[in-house]
Write a structure and sequence with these properties.
Helix content: 25-40%
Number of helices: 9
Bound molecules: guanosine-5'-triphosphate, magnesium ion, sodium ion
Structural class: alpha/beta
Strand order of the largest sheet: 12-11-17-8-9-16-13-14
């Protein structure tokens, strides 16, 4: 069936992997920001969200992806969720993977699969979430020559024999490690049926190489998988609280619409919190929700989006839980119970 562009829902893409694999740095590179260097100890400690309108992704990939290929992508945008890789944040990783439709699993080419890479992999397997592997830090291969404005396939061909050998050796080891986890992976441009394997895209968050391919592949894969039954957004509101920040909360609107003035229920540390949305704020497109900045005010927001909500009484809101909207016909007590079950 043909659905209007208006009703299409953007996918949510979670970026996962071991600590310091380069998840935040990759996002910094795409956003043109420098958030990673400001993190305490260089460690991500909470879930982040950045919305990329499809237009911006097209702009960022047009140098190496043909116009014709772009025309095939049918999504309004992409909401990318950054997750912490440090072992102590497994609850946040699990919540992040619950939220997402697709994922990027970041692997440091110098380290291969590590403990939290495998933990992330198991979360993705459990929920049957499709993903792409970003084989990051290729610039650290000894003697790597940066090739700008070039497809990764050609960039690799242009390296010296030593670099190509080291790349191949590390890649083969990592493919074997994935096999040990029961997964068939291969380079995104290698021959063979792309439906029967997970693609690996070599990237560098420092030089930017491979990032356009990564963005394009994630959208292309999503578009291909949903060719018949296009994902449309529904009226059924689904909201997840990802961070409590004193008087405000950061949420991911997974589906439906939120309005200023909506009566909401969230799980609180001392019982359910019933309150009314005072303001709905979003960062500018391509900006991270968890970073203080100027916000855009909205009367209503349609999914998918990362949102900061201000309302009275949010000081004791729990995180990694659902947020429920109360309509006039709803039974408040029932919703309060549901909110506390999370
Ligand atoms: P956590 O969120 O703490 O799990 O880490 P992360 O996966 O977000 O990694 P992060 O972006 O914090 O990067 C870790 C370190 O690796 C930083 O010092 C980055 O500058 C460096 N780094 C990330 N990507 C690359 C890359 O492609 N090449 C090189 N040379 N260094 C990189
Ligand atoms: Mg990080
Ligand atoms: Na880090």
């Amino acid at each position: 069936k043909d659905v209007s562009e208006e009703s299409l829902r953007s996918p949510i893409c979670c970026i996962m992997g071991h600590v310091d694999a380069g998840k935040t740095k990759l996002l910094d590179r795409i956003r043109g920001t420098n958030l990673q260097e400001g993190e305490a100890g260089g460690i991500t400690q909470q879930i982040g969200a950045t919305y990329f309108p499809a237009e911006n992704i097209r702009e960022r990939t047009k140098e190496i992806i043909s116009h014709v290929d772009h025309a095939k992508l049918k999504v309004p945008g992409l909401l990318v969720i950054d997750t912490p890789g440090h072992e102590s944040f497994s609850k946040l990783r699990s919540h992040g993977s619950d939220l997402c439709d697709i994922a990027i699993l970041v692997v440091d080419i110098m380290h291969g699969l590590e403990r939290q890479t495998i933990e992330s992999l198991n979360l993705l397997k459990m929920r049957n979430t499709d993903f792409i592997v970003a084989l990051n830090k290729v610039d650290r291969l000894y003697g790597w020559k940066t090739c700008r404005h070039t497809q990764m396939k050609e960039a690799i061909e242009q390296q010296s024999k030593d670099v190509r050998n080291e790349f191949r050796m590390r890649l083969d080891q990592i493919i074997t490690q994935f096999k040990e986890q029961g997964l068939n992976t291969d380079l995104y441009y290698s021959k063979g049926n792309i439906r029967e394997r997970y693609s690996i895209v070599p990237t560098s968050a420092i030089t930017g190489e491979g990032i356009p391919e990564l963005l394009w592949l994630i959208l292309a894969q999503w578009t291909r998988k949903n060719k018949v039954e296009k994902p449309t957004y529904s009226d059924q509101v689904q909201v997840e609280v990802v961070e409590g920040l004193g008087t405000t909360i950061d949420v991911v609107l997974v589906n439906g619409v939120l309005h200023g003035g909506d009566r909401i229920v969230v799980c609180g540390k001392q019982g359910p919190i019933v309150t009314t949305i005072r303001s709905l704020l979003t960062p500018h497109p391509m900006k991270e929700l968890r970073v203080e900045g100027t916000y855009l005010h909205h009367k209503e927001i349609k999914a998918v989006q990362g949102i900061k909500i201000t309302a009275q009484g949010l000081e004791h809101a729990s995180t990694a839980t659902g947020l429920y909207v109360v309509r006039p016909q709803d039974d408040l007590e029932e919703i309060e119970e549901k909110a506390m079950e999370d």
